[in-house]
Design goal:
29 strands; 3-stranded antiparallel beta sheet; about 50% helix; 72 helices; flat; 6-stranded antiparallel beta sheet; alpha+beta
Length: about 1900
């Protein structure tokens, strides 16, 4: 029966379905019948859905029967046609949500103005239907897939909904009739159950080694149509979705169908497979259970629960071992860590094996098992608009969360899987209401935290920080795949997502147990990726694990932290902060214990990862800033503070070491870490909290202790001695200077940074912005990127928000995008306003935020430039001192650092050392010292009383250095003698200790506390002070108030570390006379800096005002002297005593500064300066020489083309002036003439061009089509018109004659251009040879003859030989020869006859003629064969003939285009010196002379003689010649001139021009006669006939026109006038004026070409003129007009008839008449030429890029009808192509390359739709040109990464068009690469 059921025809299926439906809907009356029908339906479905052999259990690979789906369709619709059923269900769709689900790579939109959740996204349709004008939105390519949120009020604001999803009231939608879906309710449960059964059957537990992905794929492929069917059902709208929800969540259905209790064997079997698959879906592992059992009986209960599940099958309890494969091998650690964790996870539901109660749960289970197949995901998501489903699904998802994590960890495709997981979870957790509900009902937070903890568990290792052997701390191993591949991100991103909801975050912050667990999680990252400094060898293998470490800290620790912080903004949330801080401190305390930390960090190791410190710091900052909490109530005791500061300080010191190159042996990666640590995305989660924490510690700890710790950590204690030389035990001398700079800079940052100490958010934003802009001008997007945003999206200050834009406009000016002459394109940039440089430039902030050290320099350079331009400072300014925001009262203690004796001693010592020129000190050190002094003066406590001088309150006597703590009073304290320790070897000098090598104390002698044999002296003369010992003592005081053990722990360490006896020479003590105070040192420094004695004069002596007025602008900017003056002024302001002392010091005549001993280092810099100066002078000289050479070269080489007219004037009238042209060879540098034996040549680039063919006959530019309606037809281009014309001619006339009547080369013509440099051809050959042997990869192929000009590096591919002799005829303009026209015509004819009388006789092969031949070959091979072959008989010589004169035509026409299409501007050619037409003509002429024109067919005769024999016309040839009137006059001109012997004489040229002009004029009249209406024609014929006998008859167009009309009337030319379309004849009558204008316009193109030709052949300027008089000027210039007359000018007066005009006209017309008798239609078609072509243009692009993008990115390709992956569109003709598409490949050419050959003869300009970038293909190379679409801030958006709206930049598009028309792509764009035909 089953088999039979499958074979039923669709009719029977339909009937059965209808019958069953009827029976079931009838319902009520006959219950029995309905029940029977239901039974029948069930049986039918079982037959249809299961494979045919249902009796025996089926093999897993077997496919479901093909009939299943048609059957289901018929059954669901109850026998109706499916489409009808779908439509009727859709009618009942109440859904107001869009819910469209998309997969990766879909283009969607995000509007920040409308979004409530940051993840909000819209499909393109909803976005365009909504109103988002002026909003902050962007387009993006979906990474993981997503769904449209339109209509969902939880995620976005109602204003943003589109028209379709504005809220519909429920009343509008009718309720669903019961019987419509009755079948669905019965069929679907079975359908879904069978789907599940297939999934159960198809799954096999992967064997350990063999991944079973292939099998899974097979099963999925088989089920694809079934899942798609379900997906289609979801798209039917709300009514069907609710049925599906009912089916999926109904527990009854599930138990009925799936329990496996039925009699069906295969159902039983599949149920067993399912139970096996369920094992291991919980978190407990067998070994954990044992551990739990031992640890705490409570947890052990879980195993019994498992036993009781699933009918007591004990197997499922024993998790299978495959879950263990990924566990860490180190069992020792493993056991420890697991034990620790299993106690925290109390939540039994996470631990257990899953239990399923409905289809939905099992479907999700299999979806996970099969690693989230895309189709299933889409189906599950498509159901989300149904609210009941959404809740049920979310709960199910949470229930499976642990299982998801386990599957993800094992997956081989973790990337794809992660994307799919997030695709689902982001839809569920972005909704606050839902997230809250699940948190309350399903313990979502517990589950997430536990799952994350478990996940990280598998990759823990023992921490080696601090105490390697005994450490109990474990950290994650950054080398593990889990971290390296970011496998954890889906889980973390879900966690961050739910923490962004206030209600959820509050639950988290209230739950102490969760906080403890979370801190436990964070502690895994504390101290990860430890770096140990390599001291001997360079590390062999540079590990790149630091990427993983930084990413992990940012994503897993910092982002959740920011999420939590965003909910701690107000007083009411104080409690939360207290909780976090409390557990943070506890965890930190545990950490210090675990790593056995006492007081000293282990040297030479650093970790950049201290997330616990940072949590603590950030919550402290928030508490003080927003919650008004008392800081002290949150701080631990002093001892803990001391511990807390150690590791962050270690990082700061290590940064300095890394930048001092002390870590070079660790490889580049350590630099990478130092850079990442301060980089914009990380800095506010890393360096900022660290510095803030140090500021907090500094404000609460003893300042002397803190300062000495800093110098000790930076290893520069030993340097701080008054002795001139010392020995540093811990640092090489070459690192000393930069480490000292580092320490001082760190102190400056610590004391002046206010990011967390009182700045408002706006001030912070402003400071960040100013710092970035000062380093460099920035584009808007890079600024957004560089400014550290608060990573939590709900924080308010987001880039792009209003505050950002308004702040930007306050501090910066916008510089619009510009072009540089080199063609490189600039983006729109923001640059700081002048007042920002003036008042807000903050070097400290710049130093803090620079990733590269060079940026600090860049900022200073820009600052200097600003000062110089505004004239404020000359010389080298120092970084300015910037006023700081006031400190928050909680942190006032920080300023005590500035008023502690230790710092003052350091400052004094350093000032002294700088003054005495000790080694290893730099300007930077001085700058920082002065900065610190100034900070101290700015932040001194209230004005100290002047009487305070009596130093009564002295504490311990080591302070004989300074009396008190206040900097203001200490500044004036004189220090007379200092005791220093110097090596015994040094000769003792009382006044100045001699060169000594070591003294490892701070600013003075080494304290006896550490040097064993010395007694401590307390004489008043010498102070003894040891920084390190001081610090030790303080530390001891604090710590061991009662214990002595700590003492022992510390002491031995120090003695070992510091004095290594025997290593250094014995030290003795010397006493040094100093007699200085800080003030006196400052004044002397001023003298030293200025280089003058007594340069400092207290300003207040002249002007008391200076003391009163506080901010003196004079001191704002300046160099070191200004800084010193500013400090002295401030010191004087603060106390009268200081003022007096300064005056006192200045009054004493300053003793001469000790003669400056130049230290080797300084000598080096002096030498350097001198050397630089010399080098500069040398360079200048060289450049000048080069310039003069170039100039002379320009002058000589270019003589060729532009002879000076005045020279010509002086030459005697008839005499030919012969001067050899001289060429400079740019290779060998010799100059000389070009000879036949050693010819010179021009460097040229030959390229095929179809630009001319793109001219159109309208001035209206063509638009790029952006909708189906718009299309471009190529019929109206110049190329198409000429091609059609040639084809028509060839149809009716003799081939050889046709090929001389037109020009080709409109498409694929060869354009020749030169850079103007010349070289000997033999030099060129050797140059090419050397290029060939050069192994360096060039951007061009030498094989094809390509090279770059040796002088200017312009791209070239051939050399055009220069014709020897005087190239330019200098026949004078005046010398109109006296020969008559007739004689000249005769001469021309004779010259054409004598063939081969070429001065270079061709018989003798000279080098020159060889070269000319080879260049001709090059020209020919430049273009494709199809563009040179037009003759009917292939290979005929006529072809070459046509090609050659067309090359000349192409080059002339292109030059005309470059001049703007006319010659009004006159002057030398715009390419001026760059023109090579003259040389090109010689080459062409030489080759043209090889072809003789049979004298019978020579057009010259037809033009100048009357045919003697009438019969000659219609000779018995099968095809006549082309009538003269059909011939293209410009082509004839070139043929005539190129077949003449060269050099041509001017008079012959003029003669040819005159003759051809008459022909042209007649053509115009003939066309005119055909254009005008019949009446007009009669009128003109009669009026002209009357004037025929006047004297000037043959020079008036009326007479000639009437003659033409009467002649042509003989044939059928004017017939069938009326039938033709009226556009032919203009309706308005032609008045004489309009006829005159028409004739002039008609003749102009010819005159322009001729004038250009004359200019190139004979030199002479082209006259410039107004647009209106171009005709007369050119006619005059060509000698057609004898006298220049403007009034009442008639074009006919240019005519110069050599034969009786009326006879020859009749003869020309008769040819047409005889042709017209047979072909009336064609006569006119061939006549009417449109000589008026507009300049070539690219297509016009729409204003907004979105218009292009929306139309093209979904458009399917016309060739392969698929949507291309990389669509592109040609900007020349609008063709849509697939870039790189293999689908459209033809003979190994991809479509773009192919198109570039067909459309542009090898040049293609394509706009890449998905990238907004333009790509140029030129021959075999391509380059990215850039984008012509910029956003509102003038930036490109390559690859549409930012997705901001883009607008056309007209200037850029003009530049692109300009480069296309002028063929300069090769020269201007630099980055070319080969495309191997693959584009």
């Amino acid at each position: 029966m089953a088999a039979a059921a499958a074979e039923w025809s669709s009719q029977e299926q339909r009937a059965t379905a209808a019958r069953l439906k009827a029976a079931l809907s009838a319902g009520g009356c006959e219950d029995g019948e309905a029940a029977a029908a239901a039974g029948e339906l069930r049986a039918l479905l079982e037959r249809v859905l299961l494979p045919s052999s249902s009796s025996s259990p089926w093999s897993p690979g077997e496919a479901p029967p093909a009939e299943a789906l048609p059957w289901c369709r018929w059954l669901l619709s109850g026998g109706e046609p499916w489409e009808g059923f779908v439509a009727s269900v859709r009618a009942y769709d109440p859904a107001t949500l869009c819910g469209l689900v998309w997969t990766a790579n879909f283009v969607a939109y995000r509007c920040r103005t409308c979004g409530i959740s940051p993840c909000m996204s819209l499909c393109a349709e909803c976005f365009h239907l909504g109103d988002h004008a002026g909003h902050d939105y962007n387009m993006f390519r979906s990474q993981a897939g997503g769904a449209c949120d339109c209509g969902d009020g939880n995620v976005m604001r109602h204003e943003g909904f589109c028209k379709r999803h504005r809220i519909k009231s429920s009343s509008e939608v009718p309720s669903v009739p019961k019987d419509l879906l009755i079948m669905s309710e019965l069929v679907l449960p079975q359908f879904i159950f069978y789907l599940i059964q297939y999934l159960r059957e198809g799954y096999n537990e992967p064997v350990l080694d063999l991944p079973s992905e292939k099998d899974l794929h097979k099963v999925l492929q088989m089920l694809e149509p079934h899942i798609s069917f379900l997906e289609d059902l979801t798209k039917m709208g709300g009514a069907m979705r609710s049925v599906l929800t009912q089916v999926l969540t109904n527990q009854q259905f599930y138990t009925d169908l799936s329990s496996g209790s039925g009699e069906n064997a295969c159902v039983k079997k599949s149920h067993e497979k399912y139970l096996v698959a369920l094992k291991g879906s919980g978190l407990t592992f067998p070994e954990d259970k044992l551990a739990c059992g031992v640890q705490e009986p409570g947890a052990g209960a879980s195993s019994s629960v498992v036993q009781g599940f699933s009918g007591g099958k004990s197997t499922s309890g024993q998790g299978d071992s495959s879950d263990e494969e990924d566990q860490d091998g180190s069992q020792g650690v493993g056991k420890h860590k697991r034990v620790k964790l299993s106690s925290t996870a109390k939540d039994q539901s996470i631990m257990d094996v899953l239990k399923h109660k409905c289809f939905l749960e099992e479907l999700l289970f299999w979806t996970i098992k099969y690693e989230f197949p895309q189709k299933m995901v889409t189906f599950l998501l498509n159901m989300l608009p149904d609210q009941d489903y959404k809740i049920a699904f979310t709960k199910t998802f949470v229930q499976h969360y642990a299982f998801i994590m386990k599957t993800l960890k094992k997956s081989h495709e973790s990337d794809t899987m992660s994307n799919r997981i997030v695709h689902i979870s982001v839809q569920l957790f972005s909704n606050e209401e839902l997230a809250r509900q699940v948190t309350e009902e399903c313990q979502l937070l517990d589950i997430m935290v536990t799952v994350l903890l478990y996940m990280m568990e598998s990759c823990l290792i023992k921490s080696e920080l601090q105490d390697e052997e005994n450490s109990l701390h474990v950290v994650v191993n950054c080398g593990e795949a889990l971290l390296k591949n970011n496998t954890y991100w889906p889980l973390v991103s879900d966690f961050i997502n739910i923490l962004s909801h206030q209600s959820v975050a509050k639950k988290f912050l209230e739950d102490h147990r969760l906080l403890v667990t979370w801190m436990n999680f964070v502690s895994f990252f504390q101290g990860m990726n430890l770096n140990k400094r390599e001291l001997n060898e360079h590390v062999e293998f540079e590990s790149q694990t630091y990427y993983a470490a930084f990413a992990a800290e940012l994503e897993a620790c910092a982002q959740p932290m920011w999420g939590l912080l965003s909910h701690c903004k107000v007083r009411e949330t104080q409690e939360y902060t207290r909780n976090v801080v409390r557990y943070c401190l506890e965890a930190l305390q545990d950490w210090f214990d675990a790593i056995n930390f006492v007081d000293e960090p282990t040297p030479n190791q650093v970790t950049f990862h201290l997330p616990m410190h940072r949590y603590y710091a950030m919550f402290l900052s928030k508490a003080v800033k927003c919650q008004e909490l008392d800081l002290d109530s949150l701080l631990p005791d002093q001892e803990m503070l001391m511990k807390l500061m150690v590791h962050p300080l270690q990082i700061q010191a290590s940064l300095s070491e890394i930048h001092s190159n002390m870590w070079v042996r660790n490889g580049l990666q350590i630099k990478g870490q130092a850079m990442t640590y301060v980089q914009s995305h990380f800095c506010n989660s890393m360096i900022d909290p660290d510095i803030y924490l140090l500021q907090v510690c500094a404000s609460r700890l003893d300042p002397d202790y803190f300062i000495s710790s800093v110098f000790e950590r930076f290893k520069v204690v030993d340097l701080l001695t008054m002795a001139s030389q010392h020995q540093n035990t811990v640092l090489d001398s070459e690192h000393e200077r930069s480490m000292l700079e580092g320490a001082l800079t760190f102190l400056v940052i610590l004391l002046s940074l206010r990011l967390h100490l009182g700045m408002t958010d706006d001030e912070i934003l402003r400071a960040e912005m100013v710092a970035q802009l000062c380093m460099n001008d920035r584009t808007h997007s890079s600024l957004l990127d560089l400014i550290p945003e608060n990573p939590n999206p709900k924080s308010g200050i987001i880039p792009g928000s209003l505050s950002f834009e308004s702040m930007l406009s306050a501090v910066a000016d916008f510089k619009a995008p510009v072009f540089e002459p080199g063609g490189s394109m600039q983006q729109g940039m923001y640059t700081p306003k002048a007042e920002v440089w003036d008042k807000e430039f903050d070097p400290v902030m710049v130093i803090l935020r620079t990733v590269y050290r060079r940026d600090v320099q860049s900022a200073m350079d820009r600052y200097t430039t600003f000062l110089k331009q505004s004239g404020k400072v000359h010389g080298n300014p120092w970084p300015p001192y910037k006023k700081r925001t006031p400190l928050h009262p909680s942190y006032k203690g920080l300023m005590r650092l500035l008023h502690c004796k230790t710092l003052h001693i350091v400052l004094f010592t350093l000032l002294y050392k700088i003054l005495m020129d000790h080694q290893n000190l730099s300007e930077h050190v001085l700058c920082m010292v002065l900065y610190l002094i100034e900070l101290g003066l700015e932040n001194s406590s209230e004005q100290e009383s002047d009487e305070e001088d009596s130093a009564g309150s002295q504490e311990r006597c080591h302070d004989s250095w300074f009396p008190g703590n206040n900097l203001v009073s200490n500044m004036r304290h004189f220090i007379n003698y200092v005791r220093v320790r110097v090596p015994e070897t040094a000769p003792e000098v009382k006044r100045e200790p001699p060169a000594s090598t070591s003294s490892d104390g701070l600013a003075a002698s080494q304290s006896s506390r550490r040097s064993k044999g010395l007694q401590r002296e307390n004489s008043g003369t010498a102070q003894v002070f040891s920084l390190v010992a001081e610090r030790r003592k303080k530390f001891q005081e604090i710590i061991n108030r009662n214990t002595t053990e700590a003492n022992q722990a510390v002491r031995p360490k120090t003695s070992m570390k510091w004095s290594a006896p025997g290593a250094t020479p014995q030290l003795t003590t010397a006493i040094l006379e100093v007699k200085e105070s800080i003030l006196s040192l400052l004044i002397k420094l001023h003298h030293k800096l200025s280089g003058k004695q007594n340069s400092y004069y207290p300003p207040w002596l002249d002007d008391m005002e200076t003391l009163i007025q506080h901010e003196n602008p004079k001191y704002l900017h300046g160099d070191g002297m200004t800084a010193v003056e500013r400090i002295l002024l401030k010191a004087a302001l603060q106390s009268r005593l200081n003022k007096h002392i300064i005056e006192e010091i200045c009054r004493k005549v300053t003793p001469p500064v000790p003669p400056k001993k130049i230290s080797p280092a300084e000598k080096k810099t002096l030498d350097k300066e001198e050397r630089r100066q010399k080098a500069r002078e040398r360079q200048q000289k060289l450049l000048a020489e080069f310039a003069s050479r170039q100039k002379s070269f320009m002058e000589t080489a270019m003589d060729v083309e532009s002879p000076e007219v005045d020279i010509a004037m002086e030459i005697a009238t008839a005499e030919q002036h012969v001067s050899e042209a001289v060429y400079d060879c740019v290779i060998c540098g010799q100059s000389g003439p070009s000879t036949e034996e050693r010819p010179a040549g021009l460097v040229v680039l030959l390229q095929a061009s179809s630009v001319l063919g793109q001219c159109r006959d309208t001035t209206e530019p063509k638009k790029l089509p952006t909708s189906e309606k718009e299309q471009i037809y190529p019929g109206d281009t110049c190329a198409a018109v000429y091609e059609a014309r040639l084809a028509t001619l060839q149809q009716y006339f003799k081939d050889s004659s046709c090929l001389q009547s037109v020009s080709i080369g409109w498409e694929g013509g060869v354009y020749v251009q030169t850079c103007g440099h010349t070289l000997h051809i033999d030099c060129h050959k050797s140059y090419m040879e050397s290029l060939r042997n050069d192994q360096v990869l060039q951007g061009f192929s030498v094989e094809k003859g390509e090279f770059t000009c040796p002088l200017c590096r312009q791209f070239a591919n051939s050399v055009l030989p220069c014709y020897p002799g005087n190239n330019v005829e200098r026949t004078l303009w005046q010398c109109h020869s006296n020969k008559s026209m007739q004689d000249l015509i005769k001469e021309v004819e004779e010259l054409q006859e004598q063939l081969g009388t070429f001065p270079v006789s061709i018989s003798s092969e000279t080098n020159l003629s060889k070269e000319m031949e080879s260049v001709m070959k090059d020209i020919k091979s430049t273009t494709q064969k199809k563009y040179t072959d037009y003759s009917k008989s292939p290979g005929s010589p006529d072809n070459d003939f046509l090609f050659m004169y067309s090359v000349a035509r192409t080059n002339l026409e292109l030059e005309l285009v470059h001049r703007g299409g006319n010659l009004c501007l006159g002057g030398a050619s715009t390419a001026g010196k760059r023109s090579c037409l003259n040389q090109l003509f010689h080459v062409l002429a030489m080759h043209m002379r090889l072809y003789s024109i049979d004298s019978a067919f020579n057009p010259w005769k037809k033009l100048t003689q009357l045919a003697r024999d009438e019969n000659l016309q219609m000779s018995n040839e099968e095809q006549p010649e082309v009538p003269v009137l059909y011939r293209d006059v410009s082509s004839l001109l070139l043929i005539q001139i190129l077949t003449m012997p060269q050099p041509l004489r001017k008079e012959h040229f003029i003669c040819i021009t005159k003759v051809l002009f008459t022909l042209l004029y007649m053509q115009a009249l003939v066309i005119l006669s055909v254009k005008c209406s019949t009446e007009d024609r009669m009128t003109w014929m009669n009026s002209g006939a009357l004037k025929k006998n006047l004297s000037n008859a043959k020079k008036t167009w009326e007479v000639l026109l009437s003659h033409v009309i009467s002649e042509l009337s003989k044939g059928k030319i004017y017939e069938q006038e009326e039938t033709e379309d009226p556009a032919m004849d203009s309706t308005s009558a032609w008045c004489p004026q309009s006829i005159e204008i028409y004739l002039q316009q008609f003749c102009l193109p010819f005159l322009r070409i001729t004038s250009l030709l004359q200019h190139h052949l004979f030199g002479g300027e082209l006259p410039s003129c107004q647009e209106g008089e171009e005709f007369t000027v050119l006619a005059n210039c060509l000698g057609l007009l004898s006298s220049f007359q403007s009034s009442q000018f008639s074009s006919a007066s240019c005519l110069d008839w050599s034969v009786p005009p009326f006879d020859i006209i009749s003869q020309w017309c008769s040819e047409l008449v005889s042709f017209s008798n047979n072909h009336t239609k064609q006569v006119k078609i061939l006549l009417i030429q449109e000589p008026k072509w507009d300049l070539p243009r690219l297509l016009q692009l729409p204003e907004n890029y979105n218009t292009i993008f929306q139309y093209y990115h979904r458009k399917s390709c016309s060739v392969c009808s698929k949507v291309p992956k990389d669509p592109a569109v040609c900007l020349v003709c609008g063709t849509f192509v697939c870039l790189k598409g293999l689908c459209c490949k033809q003979q190994s050419y991809c479509e773009c390359v192919l198109h570039s050959q067909n459309c542009g003869a090898g040049t293609g300009i394509f706009l890449l739709i998905n990238a907004s970038v333009i790509i140029i293909i030129r021959g075999l190379r391509f380059c990215l040109w850039g984008s012509v679409y910029l956003d509102a801030h003038g930036e490109e958006d390559r690859d549409l990464r930012r997705g901001k709206p883009l607008y056309i930049c007209k200037e850029r598009y003009k530049v692109l068009e300009q480069q296309w028309v002028s063929h300069t792509f090769d020269h201007i764009n630099k980055r070319w690469g080969p495309h191997y035909n693959g584009l």
